[in-house]
Structure prediction request, 108 residues.
Amino acid sequence: MNYFRFEDFSEGDVGELTFHNCVQYRMGTNDEGFYTYGKDRFKPYGVEWGEFYLIKGWDWKTNFPDPIYVNKSHASENLNHYIFYFREHAFECIAESYEFRLTKASPQ
Prediction:
């Protein structure tokens, strides 16, 4: 957790992000590609590196490069498109929902 940037976090805090009923995912652009080469299809929309987004209004069925399929036969109509820009890469997935859990560091 980036405690330098976000005051809700402390040094040593650990976060766990779980996606439920994931259909597909991919590892994408690294931070150099994002900042130096502009190689991210969401950058023109004002996304920031190090942030987590729910993407709306994007046709992920036809515009999702090199997906890794988890469950092609998932029948849910309630799928969401998520992207998380973390330290050195971007993680993008299609899933029903997510859950975030924070484990606070022990006081020293």
In short: The longest strand covers residues 14-20. The mean pLDDT is 83. The chain is about 5% helix and 35% strand. Strands lie at 14-20, 24-30, 52-55, 68-69, 80-85, 89-95, 97-103.
